[in-house]
């Protein structure tokens, strides 16, 4: 699931906030870093809500956000929209059968061995790091 964030800059720092998720914010030295940090902040915010017995509020569309006076004001002051992928750690391993080129699999296995982790942990790490790039 992708969520809409507002990105803004002040004094050389970038901030990312979610108009529909009060308190879910992140900072960074660049827009890219702020969005990457926003993914982690979003995951933590959702986990805290669920641990407290609360759900995640319904997200408004960009069209609906553009009708919000506070969002409009932020945009007029230079903010922009960004998309952030929510990747939850559900704590439930699931088996998946993947077909990969043998050279890619060898590189994954070699890197996993060097890092002292399993192949599955390596694939999961790579996915978590790279999925946000495709938001």
Task: State the main characteristics.
about 140 residues; 2 domains; Double Stranded RNA Binding Domain; alpha+beta; four-stranded antiparallel β-sheet
Give me the secondary-structure topology.
Elements: E1 2-10, E2 13-17, E3 25-28, H1 31-51, H2 62-65, H3 69-76, E4 80-85, H4 102-115, H5 119-130
Antiparallel strand pairs: 1-2, 1-4, 2-3
Helix pairs in contact: 4-5
Query: For this structure, what is the CATH class of the largest domain?
Result: Alpha Beta
Describe the largest sheet: 4 strands, antiparallel
Structurally, the number of domains stands at 2
What is the tally of helical segments?
A: 5
Distance between the ends? 10 Å
The rough form would be described as elongated
Q: Nearest-angstrom radius of gyration? A: 18 Å
Strand order of the largest sheet: 3-2-1-4
Overall mean pLDDT? 90
| Quantity of strands, as a count | 4
Query: In terms of structural class, how would the helical and strand content be classed?
Result: alpha+beta
> Which regions have little confidence, pLDDT < 50, spanning 5+ residues?
none
CATH topology of the largest domain: Double Stranded RNA Binding Domain
> What is the string of helix and strand elements?
EEEHHHEHH
The level of helicity is 40-55%
For the record, the CATH architecture of the largest domain stands as 2-Layer Sandwich
Strand residues, percent:
15-25%
């Amino acid at each position: 699931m992708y969520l809409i964030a507002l990105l803004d800059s002040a004094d050389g720092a970038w901030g990312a906030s979610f108009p529909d998720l009060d308190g879910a914010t992140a900072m960074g030295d660049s827009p890219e870093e702020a969005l990457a940090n926003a993914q982690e902040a979003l995951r933590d915010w959702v986990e805290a809500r669920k641990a407290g017995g609360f759900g995640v509020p319904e997200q408004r569309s960009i069209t609906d956000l553009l009708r919000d006076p506070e969002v409009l004001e932020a945009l007029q002051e230079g903010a922009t929209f960004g998309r952030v992928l929510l990747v939850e750690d559900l704590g439930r391993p699931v088996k998946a059968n993947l077909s990969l080129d043998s050279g890619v699999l060898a590189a994954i296995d070699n890197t996993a061995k060097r890092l002292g982790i399993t192949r599955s942990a390596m694939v999961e790490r790579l996915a978590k790091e790279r999925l946000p790039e495709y938001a």
